[in-house]
């Protein structure tokens, strides 16, 4: 069974503002670093993405894959790998928790990656950690710069 990697960050914005950036897949290449292209292939009745094609370049992990998204209320989104050239598993989630009466948000990102090619577990976990840390830092910067604009 694959192990997961998790990390959290606090963002100076309301949970709804953070989730709006997370849900805006078309803009991922502007702030995530690893995502070079993002295309929503299917959306639910509320307009939230259900299937997204992503072109990922995270150093040790490069892939063109499709993820299936599940939205749990307004404070959590999770995804599972639908199809991929290189990956066996790419499951993750963003969980948002309001702080200070909703003026700030703690974002927890959890990720599990498994590749089809042999790769040491230590290298996989390092790649997961790099993806998570860059995504959280990019999300914080994106949300807070949007808030001040």
What can you see in these coordinates?
The chain is of the alpha+beta class and 149 residues long. It contains three helices and seven strands; from the N terminus they run βααββββββα. The chain has helices at residues 15-23, 28-31, 121-148; strands at 5-11, 35-43, 49-58, 61-72, 76-84, 87-99, 104-115. Helix 1 crosses helix 3 (121-148). The model has no long low-confidence stretch (mean pLDDT 88).
Short summary:
With 149 residues, the protein is an alpha+beta fold. It has helices at residues 15-23, 28-31, 121-148; strands at residues 5-11, 35-43, 49-58, 61-72, 76-84, 87-99, 104-115. Strands 1-7-6-5-4-3-2 form a 7-stranded antiparallel beta sheet.
């Amino acid at each position: 069974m694959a192990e997961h990697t998790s990390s959290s960050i606090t963002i100076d914005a309301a949970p709804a503002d953070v989730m709006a950036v997370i849900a805006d897949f078309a803009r991922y290449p502007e702030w995530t670093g690893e995502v070079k292209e993002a295309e929503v292939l299917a959306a639910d009745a509320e307009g939230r993405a259900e299937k997204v094609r992503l072109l990922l370049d995270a150093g040790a992990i490069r892939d063109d894959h499709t993820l299936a998204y599940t939205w749990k209320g307004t404070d959590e989104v999770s995804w599972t790998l639908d199809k991929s050239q290189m990956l066996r598993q790419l499951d993750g989630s963003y969980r948002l928790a309001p702080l200070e009466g909703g003026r700030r948000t703690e974002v927890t990102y959890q990720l599990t990656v498994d590749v089809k090619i042999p790769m040491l577990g230590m290298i996989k976990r390092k790649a997961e950690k790099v993806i998570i840390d860059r995504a959280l830092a990019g999300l914080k910067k994106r949300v807070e710069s949007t808030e001040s604009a």
